[in-house]
Design brief:
The chain has 5 helices and 10 strands. By secondary structure, it is an alpha+beta fold.
Length: 372
Amino acid sequence: MAAYLENTLIGLCDEAIERKKTISTFLTSKIGGEPDKIPAVCFRYPSCTVCKSALTHVVQVYCPLDASPYHRTINVFACTNTDCQGKSDGWKVLRSQCLDSDVKLSTGAAGAQQAPHVQPAAPMASTDWCADADDWGVEEEDCCSSTWTTSQTPTVQPSSMAVTESAAADVGSQFQSLSISTTEEDCQPAGPTFQEYYISVVEEGDFTADSGMEHAQDLLREYEEREGASVMELGDSGGGGGGGEEKYEKTEARHGDAVFSGFMKKVSLCPEQILRYCRNGSPLLISKPPLDLEKSVPKCSHCGSGRTFEFQLMPALVSLLCSNNASETELAVEFGTVMVYTCQSSCWKSGLSSPVEECAVVQQDPDQKFFK
């Protein structure tokens, strides 16, 4: 997988998901709403470790790994209580996987039940997350959405995802007859949900220093005026090809180090980015971590493997996390960046039915006003 993802993928907010027109599935990457049903996987809405309140669904990321037979979806949840924001314990990350055969079994269990009257659409190939990735927000208009139910604990086996196009097409066709019954045991959100949007993707390499230079310089000038830190000019100082190391004058900002300056320089090429994906890569830190970040990430509690960085949520996402219904209680989640670490082997074994809990590391925004 690392060979495919040497270049970071950037997630951008796409169009809103209108439930009357389109229905998302676990093959959809999206902001907000409810997590979509994954065949053979059941669980209850997670609770906040700090205040015990039910968490709110923040993002769903469909991220199959190259050369693995599994579909793979990661759901991220957060506590909307003010006292819990900015704390890693107020977040939960759940990874779920399934085989094509699980989809077929779910379809068989549905029996003769009728599927929703929606027009079929071309399914998204699982390799779309790898080298050929160009869109996380494919509209699967033929697919049936539903909430997650309860059950037991997870699984174990190595990773990487590449299902053939014919297999993916077969999965898409199975959804037309897939129906999930709704019972008292079904997992329903305990409170309001965030508005739903598709997530689309571009490669970070598509953004050059020149393409965003004017806006980037404006942002950096504002930062220098506000924080008293001088950042050297963007772009290569001359010379061919490689390097690209970011150098900063030693003047420190009020934040205490130049990490935030580097974060702003990187983000300024695409300020609208809401997610950065680079499995086995390195996160973009918004502030200096108090400890060795990699060593502080716990090993997978299910197989004992180490965890690797997979993706992170970015500040631009904060303003998009609004209540799905204007009449409901207003929701808000504040953060600088949320880094998601997942099992290096992506442990999973077919036949077990609960998602694997992964690790979220939260860094607060040292200057939240800068992004508004």
